[in-house]
Amino acid sequence: MPVAAFAADLAPRPVEPVAPVIEPVFTWTGFYMGLNAGYGRGTLDTDLRAIPTAAPAPLTRAIGFAVGGGFGKVKDTAGGFIGGGQLGYNYQFDQNWVVGAEADLQYSGIDSTAHAIGDDGNPITLKTKVDWYGTARLRGGYAFDRFLVYATGGLAYGEVKSKLSVPGESMSGSDTRFGWTVGGGVEYALTQNWTLRAEYLYVNLGKGKTIDKPTSDDISRITAKPDVAMHTVRAGVNYKF
């Protein structure tokens, strides 16, 4: 009997089951903010007009005169780096559909330098630059768990600068304008908080005056109206709260 009792003492103790780790269900609902960088390319076509008030100055002669004043169109394409930040809010409902709103502000290196020859043979140089721009957009998409496909569109705004030069004279100016944007993208959630995205936006800032000034001898007035439309692609990272 003592031997049997000793053997019973050596029996293995029962092992308690380990509770499974349950991963929280991911949702796109919540506020987020992040950074992005990419490339933009577009057309910066500019209407130039020279309206004489007396004998033509060098700048107005270079552009040339027609009925009612000199007029010319400078067509050019431009490209450059873009980068900035965004913040927004998403709401996920009915399991898969996601709606939200986002605002962003971008530094822009999109610029162009166009060269032409005026009516009197003088060279004309026109530099145009999108200095910065931003958007305020609505978003709507469909989520495949952690993968989101979305479309977006809304308001665009930004500052456009111009500098017009001929031998012996130059002038510059800028214009802050409003337009529209539309595009789409894909986004993937790496964790409950961090997401990565790739996005395309078409940004149209429209046409507005950047230069509307008299020449240095005050005998004519020059206007420049760039028409700005850009295609942009960018990658970004967001932190979701």
Q: How many separate domains make up the residues?
A: 1
CATH C-level class: Mainly Beta
Could you state the order of secondary-structure elements as H and E? HEHEEEEEEEEEE
The Cα radius of gyration reads 30 Å
CATH topology group? Porin
What's the number of helices?
Answer: 2
| Portion of residues within helices | under 10%
Strand order of the largest sheet: 1-3-4-6-7-8-9-11
Q: How would the global form be characterised?
A: rod-shaped
- The share of residues in extended strands comes to over 45%
Whole-number mean pLDDT: 87
Q: Any low-confidence stretches, pLDDT <50, length ≥5?
A: 65-69
The CATH architecture is Beta Barrel
| Through-space gap between termini | 67 Å
Largest β sheet strand count, sense and barrel closure: 8 strands, antiparallel, barrel
Strand segment count = 11
The chain-level structural class is mainly beta
Task: Describe the model.
Helix content is 6%, strand content 69%. It is mainly beta and 241 residues long. The chain has one domain (30-240): Porin (Beta Barrel). It has an 8-stranded antiparallel beta barrel with strand order 1-3-4-6-7-8-9-11. A hairpin with a 5-residue loop joins strand 5 and strand 6 (123-144). The chain is rod-shaped, with a radius of gyration of 30 Å.
List the helices and strands and how they pair.
Blueprint lengths: L1 H8 L20 E23 L5 H6 L6 E5 L2 E17 L3 E12 L2 E7 L5 E22 L2 E20 L2 E21 L4 E14 L3 E4 L5 E21 L1
Antiparallel strand pairs: 1-2, 1-3, 1-11, 3-4, 4-6, 5-6, 6-7, 7-8, 8-9, 9-11, 10-11
